[in-house]
């Protein structure tokens, strides 16, 4: 492992601390009694406090120093005075340990007294301090120049998501996003608990990946010698519990779908699913409105929230738009009664890519997703989906070929999906068999037949309504974040590229070529000033590493930097 100059210096300080008999990573508890926020909120002049946190800044002026420490509640100013910390003749703790061996990022414990500075800032007069953890890497802290311009901010998404622990330390707004996320889930739990619904847990490893149309992750159980799947939904297990006699159950579940990643999709995501006996999808729409009103109020103190440039109001009631009417309005095509071939031609005419594995349900879904979804900014229930799109949904009581299903769209994205649940075991078996036909055509998102779930339905499931709410997308809305990665502590990332060690000659070639992007190979060789042997070795290795490529044009060879 190659260390930077700063990392080497910090390791030297680590050694020096141990030589002085100071353990940089002590085992004993530190008796924290106060926080930065509580010390300022309940400020009393002269009050004794004991805090711990990360050293985030300091201004040393001889025998005194102002600094800031940051804990989970925020920051507070602290004042180090040599004679307060070292009242006797031995000033080593201040002169050596504090001034020379501590660094920004170190975690320290502080005992002291509160006082107010001449400019009125609540501050801790440090009486004693302890090193609790030595930071061996420097924090990427932003710097502000004399003109107020900020430099070196830690704002590259790739780095922030990969090193979320650093992101949380140096970007306070990120911490607030996740505090709000917890507030959102707590609000939902409170709403359901007050109604007497039971929070439950269902299997993540499943022999049949049911409850949704999605491509699953597959693994193998060695002892049982069977394939198992990471769940794509928890729906079928929750409905088994309704069969078992519970009137209302819900679960915050981690689901997994083997699909691409973008600003609204992560392979691992959180969904809340609720099932309530003796209800239908009309009842569920009203319940959803009540729930989201409460969550918005609990998170923001009002039902209106700002999302980008939009003002979105979660105040009920929400419009209800049949999906086929929405498609007709936004595309001009009436899809009622259309067969697979006709739908495929319509999709192609709208510029939608079509393949032979796509049945009626997926074709309608693609048309709606591409041409209609983005129009629905305010909360809107899209209702009455065709049967082919809804294999777990009860047939509509009045409209032939449709089902009692709704999706809630907000800001152009689906937030919730809900049904009057299909409880006819014979109809359900036929729907599963239709899905099997789609699978045989090559649709890798078609549902499996879950024989045990069918057996459960044969024992009798009461009329039931269920809903799934995408927690990550809801959190995106209520925290004004456009990317799902911003509301996941640790989003899935591509493998981290290993740092490539270059020779001095290779670095010389890189430093000339990289800023320009491309240049004639002969000109690059002249500027590099390397001997023939070193030139050949360096350029060949850069090409082998994939950092440089050479292109032959009509009159010369052109070098490109491709990192």
TrEMBL record:
Family to which the UniProt record says this protein belongs: Belongs to the class-II aminoacyl-tRNA synthetase family.
Superkingdom: Bacteria
Chain ranges of the Aminoacyl-transfer RNA synthetases class-II family profile domain: 181-495
Location of this chain's protein in the cell: Cytoplasm
Obligatory cofactor(s): Mg(2+)
A Pfam entry, by short name: tRNA-synt_2
Subunit structure, interactors included: Homodimer.
Ligand binding (Mg(2+) 1): 407, 414
Keywords per UniProt: Aminoacyl-tRNA synthetase, ATP-binding, Cytoplasm, Ligase, Magnesium, Metal-binding, Nucleotide-binding, Protein biosynthesis
Any one Gene Ontology BP term: lysyl-tRNA aminoacylation
Reactions catalysed, as given in the entry: tRNA(Lys) + L-lysine + ATP = L-lysyl-tRNA(Lys) + AMP + diphosphate
Protein name from the UniProt record: Lysine--tRNA ligase
Binding, Mg(2+) 2: 414
UniProt cross-references to Gene3D superfamilies, sorted A to Z: Bira Bifunctional Protein, Domain 2, Nucleic acid-binding proteins
Cofactor mode of binding and number, as noted: Binds 3 Mg(2+) ions per subunit.
Protease found in the keyword field: no
Single annotated GO MF: tRNA binding
Annotated Gene Ontology cellular component terms: cytosol
E.C. no: 6.1.1.6
Entries under HAMAP family matching the protein: Lys_tRNA_synth_class2
């Amino acid at each position: 492992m190659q260390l930077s100059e700063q990392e080497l210096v910090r390791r030297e300080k680590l050694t020096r601390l141990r030589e002085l008999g100071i353990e940089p990573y002590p085992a004993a508890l530190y008796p924290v009694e106060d926080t930065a926020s509580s010390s300022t909120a309940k400020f009393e002049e002269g009050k004794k406090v004991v805090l711990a946190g990360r050293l985030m800044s300091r201004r040393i002026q001889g025998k005194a120093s102002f600094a800031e420490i940051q804990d989970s509640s925020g920051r507070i100013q602290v004042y180090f005075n040599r004679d307060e910390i070292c009242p006797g003749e031995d000033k080593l703790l201040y002169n050596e340990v504090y001034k020379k061996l501590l660094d920004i990022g170190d975690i320290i414990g502080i005992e002291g007294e509160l006082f107010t500075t001449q400019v009125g800032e609540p501050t801790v007069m440090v009486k004693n301090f302890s090193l609790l953890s030595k930071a061996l890497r420097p924090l990427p802290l932003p710097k502000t120049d004399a003109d107020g311009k900020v430099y070196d901010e830690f704002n590259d998404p790739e780095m922030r998501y990969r090193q979320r622990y650093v992101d949380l330390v140096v970007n306070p707004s990120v911490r607030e996003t996740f505090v709000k996320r917890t507030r959102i889930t707590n609000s939902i739990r409170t709403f359901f608990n007050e109604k007497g619904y039971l929070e439950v847990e269902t299997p993540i490893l499943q022999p049949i990946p049911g409850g949704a149309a999605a491509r699953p992750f597959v693994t193998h159980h060695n002892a049982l010698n069977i394939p198992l799947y990471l769940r794509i939904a928890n729906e079928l297990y929750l409905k088994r519990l309704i069969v078992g006699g519970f009137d209302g159950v819900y679960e915050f579940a981690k689901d997994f779908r083997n699909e691409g990643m973008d600003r609204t999709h992560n392979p691992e995501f959180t969904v809340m699913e609720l099932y309530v006996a003796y209800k239908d999808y009309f009842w569920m729409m009203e319940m959803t409105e009540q729930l989201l009103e409460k969550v918005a109020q609990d998170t923001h103190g009002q039902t209106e929230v700002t999302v980008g440039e939009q003002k979105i109001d979660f105040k009920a009631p929400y419009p209800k738009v049949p999906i086929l009417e929405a498609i007709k309005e936004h595309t001009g095509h009436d899809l009622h009664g259309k067969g697979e071939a006709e739908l495929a031609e319509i999709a192609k005419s709208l510029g939608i890519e079509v393949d032979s594995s796509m049945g009626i349900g997926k074709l309608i879904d693609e048309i709606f997703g591409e041409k209609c979804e983005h129009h629905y900014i305010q909360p809107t229930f899209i209702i009455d989906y065709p049967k082919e799109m809804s294999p777990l949904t009860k047939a509509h009581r009045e409209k032939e070929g449709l089902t009692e299903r709704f999706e809630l769209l907000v800001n152009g994205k689906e937030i919730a999906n809900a049904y009057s649940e299909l409880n006819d075991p014979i109809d359900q078996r036929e729907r599963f068999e239709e899905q099997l036909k789609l699978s045989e055509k090559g649709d890798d998102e078609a549902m499996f037949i879950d024989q045990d779930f069918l057996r459960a339905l044969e024992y009798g499931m009461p009329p039931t309504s269920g809903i799934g709410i995408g927690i990550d997308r809801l959190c995106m809305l209520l925290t004004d974040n456009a990317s799902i990665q911003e509301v996941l502590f640790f989003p899935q990332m591509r493998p981290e590229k290993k740092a490539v060690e270059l020779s001095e000659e290779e670095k010389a070639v890189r430093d000339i070529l990289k800023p320009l992007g491309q240049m004639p190979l002969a000109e690059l060789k002249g500027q590099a000033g390397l001997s023939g042997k070193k030139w050949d070795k360096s350029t060949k290795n850069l090409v082998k590493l994939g950092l440089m490529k050479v292109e032959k044009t009509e009159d010369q060879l052109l070098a490109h930097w491709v990192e």
